[in-house]
Amino acid sequence: MTRNGTAPDLILLNGNICTLDNQKPKAEAIAVKTGRIMAVGESDAIDALAGQQTERIVLDGRLVIPGLMDSHFHFYDWAMGRQQLDLARVDSLDELLDEVAQTAEQLPQEKWILGQGWNESDWPEHIMPRRDHLDAVAPAHPVALWRCDLHLVSVNSRALELAGIDETTPDPPDGIIEKDSSGHPTGILRELAPNLIKAVIAAPEIDVVVGAMQDGITHLHSLGLTALHDVRLMGGLEGAPALKAWQLLNEKDKLDLRCWVSLAGERLEEAIALGLRTGLGDDRLHIGHLKYFADGGMGARTAWMLEPYLDAEYGMPLGSIDELRQKIGAAEKSGLAVIVHAIGDRTNREVITVLEQLAELRHRTEAQSSIAPALSHRIEHAQMIRSEDIQRLAGLKVAACVQPHNMILDINMIEESVGPLGRYTYAYKEMIDAGIPVLFSSDAPVCDPSPLVGIHAAVTRQRRDGTPAGGWYPEQRISVADALRGYTTVPAAFYGQTRNMGSLTPGKWADMVVLDRDIFQVDPMEIADTRVKMTIFDGRIVYQSDD
Ligand SMILES: [Zn+2]
């Protein structure tokens, strides 16, 4: 790729470059060669480096930031879901049923009607779609509609029949088949019970998966994303096809993304037996962490709490904490790091205790610890966490991966479920101030995949319409710079890639994003409207907006 002798392949001039490099935080221009940043500086000096074949882009003062990383993204679900019904935009149960009815008219009867993204807490009826509702509009097709948190699926009678679920079916481990007072399944399946449905939906062909994922990567570029951690939920049904598709894309040189791929926690023994370690991979594709669930979600009242919900009991842990300790211990000894889903304040407290105990053990047996994982463990969501536990987490140097846009979607639900204890949820400022590495993410398809929507949420703690005025628990608002670090420098450090990514520094990968406005200067409410003008990955322009 040295088509240009010693001259750069590409230079960007007259920009407003926010490097996030403390040595040189601001610059006007940047030169790129063979996928790496060659120089950063004044426009005249950079222009002087250009050769005959150097491509020149004049930025007219636009803001350039490092390529963004989303550290928790269900890429397979999201990419495949882009081919299904998008129910996130639906404003009522009636509207959802209309969508299903319309799809049923167009689709052959043996085909599944699949959808995701509905959230009944934002609807006037506050009622989840149940089998009766769905049977009324689609009696012949099997229907499965995932709630926005992906912890709950709503299905009709035909789907229950295909999955062999009836009044005699017991709850699977860590899942709930909701039943009415006469013992009949209502069509609502919670936590891991939706896997009974997934198991009977025919897996798509690998070519379909590769195509959907490639299409998804193109969309990510339009959002400014150049790196991502694909957090997958299941080891068998989607784990293998997704990991294979990632490898195929990489092999064909079509993986224009720095990607870490989780392994499902249930595959611990196989991963150990195969000698897999967190970090295995190349510049594009890496094996990430094993993913565990310690509880459910507050929307479904299955997150485990220190105090009861206003309208339910304490929730519950998913599986025993002792078992979780053993699994993390075994993973760690084999060089595998873990990410643990923890929502409720009780769960966060217990998981931190487990991590403290393991750190203590590690400390005592340091002589044999050379096989410890190359990356550290982390807590996923840390959605409701008490101040004393934030301090304990900071002491452990364990990261927290959080989802700012989820906060905006959850305001009503949190108020309904825990009232004033909501002050312990989404405590980003407190976590960052305590020194916890806080990684930002979307949890797409749970939330909007745009990092700019996430930055807006973290900075304003307001919905796009400006409510609640002044921000929800405004003491937890953070600066634009801190929010941006959650998508750049913090993940670079967490993934052991400060040499290659996070800032616009000579020698690092040339992954960067040009925005249509300066997010540091505009009214923070405008940040969510910010558009990506151009995305550069590995020194190549991979996205350019039309206007
Ligand atoms: Zn998730």
Description of the molecule:
The chain contains 17 helices and 24 strands. The longest helix is centred in the middle third of the chain and has 20 residues. The mean pLDDT is 94. The protein is 31% helix and 21% strand. The two termini are 30 Å apart. With 547 residues, it is α/β, with parallel strands linked by helices. The chain is globular. Helix 2 packs across helix 7 and helix 11 packs parallel to helix 12. It binds zinc ion (ZN). The site of zinc ion (ZN) has 4 residues, from loops.
Helix content: 25-40%
Number of helices: 17
Biggest sheet statistics: 8 strands, parallel
How much is the average pLDDT? 94
How many distinct beta strands?
24
Strand composition percent: 15-25%
Radius of gyration of CA atoms, rounded to a whole number: 24 Å
Principal-axes shape call: globular
Quaternary organization: single chain
Taking pLDDT < 50 over at least 5 consecutive residues as the criterion, the unreliable ranges are none
- Heteromolecules bound: zinc ion
Gap from first CA to last CA: 30 Å
How is the topology of this model organized?
Elements: E1 10-13, E2 16-18, E3 26-27, E4 29-33, E5 36-41, H1 43-47, E6 55-58, E7 63-66, E8 68-73, H2 75-81, E9 85-86, H3 93-106, E10 113-118, H4 131-137, E11 143-147, E12 152-155, H5 157-162, E13 175-179, E14 185-191, H6 194-198, H7 206-222, E15 225-230, H8 235-251, E16 258-264, H9 268-274, E17 285-293, H10 321-333, E18 338-342, H11 345-364, E19 378-381, H12 387-396, E20 399-402, H13 404-418, H14 428-434, E21 438-440, H15 451-460, H16 480-485, H17 489-494, E22 512-515, E23 532-537, E24 540-544
Helix pairs in contact: 2-7, 7-8, 10-11, 11-12, 13-15
The site of zinc ion (ZN) has 4 residues, from loops.
